[in-house]
Amino acid sequence: MDLVKVLSEQYTKPELPEINIGDTVRVSVKVKEGNRERVQAFDGTVIARKHGGINETITVRRVSYNVGCEKVFPIHSPNIVSIETVRKGKVRRAKLYYIRDRIGKKAKVKEKI
């Protein structure tokens, strides 16, 4: 059991910002195209946070061109360059799956001041 802890601590990222449900975040991801690598940003609202430790993931949702897009990012993946919190959200739920059914201003999350 101790060996698993040592291995997971070795691969976890210590410099992560505080990420809560409802926050708007900018996730920078390494994208490989052929033999080149570049960094691509994905902005959106965190609607879920699952698991823990090395397996922790966040689900980020954004709407572009009236089409909703969700991506699940493993937080401690080496392909994740950085995660920035753009704005804090004020929510009362642990999972914001109800936002999938909302359109326009109803899908907004209030900002925490």
Explain what the structure shows.
The protein is mainly beta and 113 residues long. It has a single domain, classed as Roll (SH3 type barrels). The chain is 9% helix and 43% strand. It is built from one helix and five strands. The protein has one helix spanning 2-11; strands at residues 24-33, 36-50, 57-64, 67-74, 80-87. It has a five-stranded antiparallel sheet, with no helix packed on it. It is globular, with a radius of gyration of 15 Å. The model has no long low-confidence stretch (mean pLDDT 94).
What's the short story on this structure?
By secondary structure, this protein is mainly beta. The protein has one helix and five strands. A five-stranded antiparallel β-sheet has the order 4-3-2-1-5, with no helix packed on it.
Per CATH, the class reads Mainly Beta
Shape: globular
CATH topology type:
SH3 type barrels
Mean pLDDT: 94
Indicate the low-confidence ranges by residue numbers.
Answer: none
- Beta-strand portion reads 35-45%
- By CATH, the architecture is named Roll
Structural class: mainly beta
Number of strands: 5
What secondary-structure arrangement, pairings included, does this model have?
Elements: H1 2-11, E1 24-33, E2 36-50, E3 57-64, E4 67-74, E5 80-87
Key words describing this protein structure:
113 residues, mainly beta, SH3 type barrels, five-stranded antiparallel β-sheet, 1 helix, 43% strand
